[in-house]
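Translation initiation factor IF-2
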Amino acid sequence: GTLNVTELAEKLGKSPNEIIKKLMFAGVMANKNQDLDDDTIELIASEYGVTMKKEEEVEKSDLLQYIEAEDEKKLKERPPVVTIMGHVDHGKTTLLDSIRNTRVTAGEAGGITQHIGAYQIRTEEGKKITFLDTPGHAAFTSMRSRGAQVTDIAILVVAADDGVMPQTVEAINHAKAANVPIIVAVNKMDKEAANPDRVMQELTEYELVSEDWGGDTIFVSMSALKGEGIDDLLEMILLVAEVEELKANPNRRADGTVIEAELDKGRGSVASLLVQNGTLRVGDPIVVGNTFGRVRAMVNDLGKRIKKAGPSTPVEITGLSHVPQAGDRFVVFEDEKTARQIGELRQQKQLEERRGEQSKVSLEDLFEKIKQGDIKDLNIILKADVQGSAEALAASLMKIDVEGVKINIIHTGAGAITESDIILASASNAIVIGFNVRPDNNAKKAAETENVDVRLHRIIYKAIEEIEQAMQGMLDPEF
Ligand code: GDP
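Tokens:
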């Protein structure tokens, strides 16, 4: 074990008591000083949507380790972050628009709505709520698959005239998998065919039982179109938020998640971020996913330029070297040098991973790739001791006739196989055949790092036979 209960609680920004409770539910009795094994740590962390790597797996490029442990005493209440989910056409977009408009009545007009992937409203009592602007569970889940959990509360919109539909069930499962509390919004109550009882009945099958029926799920009846029930819904969101005790420490360097990002012609890389902890400031050195920079300009969801943004605030920033991806984590660093170092390290690692992913052609798995339709051309680079034999071999290879694949000789030459042959092969996904020649030392090294298949022969018919067999899936395994 590497952490005890108190240390884990600190890392997760939770109280030791809460962790002890979680452990109890998981069947582990522990006190505050109990050491936990890696599996238990991972399990508990994952309950909070945090991926905890085992000590030896942590690398310098891992962003999360740079988030300093939280001091429980410094935590303050923060606004809830809400996602709206439900079946298509049940009114998610209408609801999002309708809620956004309530801000106007709250006297915060003045800005022009700016779509930055999320927006924040202030209720009449002065409480803030943040809504993610992309309805549906696709975005929710793709973020989660990248280890990011931004949603505190899910609103499940169900049209009262349509009831529970396939995507309603999907949404429920996604919210449950993420351990996110659900509020049911029974929408389209203005319609004549509205049948809220049926919705309630159908949802009992998914363990969403309304309080009226003795359960503990909050149901709100509404008409997103007419703006009815919005205030009730907002009130219920705040109620659930209170129960969840959502907290963050505004007085520290910020971290959070990318909501969306794009390349803007004029402004360069533009990223919408949700600050989840700390306060983000203009000028902050920042690592975002595999990119980095300094926060150059920051605007809020009303298009207003702001200088700082606290927990649960969505902002749009410029100043990054590249475009990050939705679901990427961001962390602010104390100084630009470190941010640059970590950012470059992460870029480097990403490049290496990509290189590894893009699986190179090799004779070993050629047949598999042909079968799966991944390959239609076998690209070959041919080097021989003299140009004449290179051309003779090329002519013979071109005659091989196997259905579903075509041979392309993209380069022939005389002399040893060089590094530049390997680079060319790598870039064009080719294999290299050497006839009476060998790779020099640099080529050998390059072939290894670039993962290029190099085949050496001294007899023409053997070279042809090998390619033929590989194309037919009859190659003997190499020892
Ligand atoms: P989404 O696919 O879940 O985002 O659904 P939309 O918000 O696009 O709504 C689908 C359709 O239902 C649109 O024509 C809306 O005008 C309509 N709609 C949404 N909410 C209500 C409502 O409360 N009452 C009625 N009568 N229609 C609604």
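The pocket of guanosine-5'-diphosphate is lined by residues 86, 88-94, 135, 187-188, 190-191, 223-225 (CB under 6 Å).
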